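Message: Study each token:
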Amino acid sequence: MDYDVALSFAGEDRPYVETVASTLKELDVKVFYDDYEKVTLWGKDLYTHLQDVYLKRAKFTVMFISKYYAQKLWTSHERASAQSRAYTENREYILPARFDDTEVPGLLPTIHYIDLQETSPQELALMIKQKLELLGVQPGTAYSKLTNHQLAVKTLTFVGRLRDALYSLETTEREIQMMVYLKQPALEDKSRAEQLWRRQHALSDQLRLQMFHQYSSEYKIEAILQRDEMLARLPSKLNVSRDAFIIHTYEYPTSSYDIRAIVDDLEKLARCLP
């Protein structure tokens, strides 16, 4: 087959889907996304070609369901082709991802879907890659081609970037705390002092939220890819222990301490590479 996954979506939902497609490319997943096929599609009978893609040439199809998806003629054609393929498979072929609760003909309400209002494009791309691996497809990543030394250097450089981001966050937090500490003795009004204290906590919370968003959008995928590649290469005799906490932390850090734990874990793995 030519594609690991085909993406079926309405044009109105393109901004989200485009990020999914670009992230999948970074993950070395072979994806059918129309903007990547402009030259291939040029001059072709689209009705026949798209039927062929969704019926025969992809390992599975992610269907991005929305009110727009249900209204379009082309998405109805893609859906019909994908459903025809699903009928002949003995495993899941259509993977629904929903922007809303729009009903789609032929798609049973009991089929589990991903809620896109709670899932970022990058997270969805990672889930698609994980689904491929569950089906026995190993697409590989850009890190797969590196030597151990190159991978270690790449990871330690990445660790340095993430440490710098953490240092910037913690420095700003300390400056805010110091500002409150210096001002409080001059405030005789206890309510003003309490208001200042609450303001400091609100600013600190805002900084942490910004850090989590930055980690999710800029660092998360790279961190997980590097971790998985290094774990696949480490000899068993090193017995690098993996607990459920650190695995979950890569996906959902809840504090700057969690991100520091990720950084420390990546550095440990890089230095353990033979």
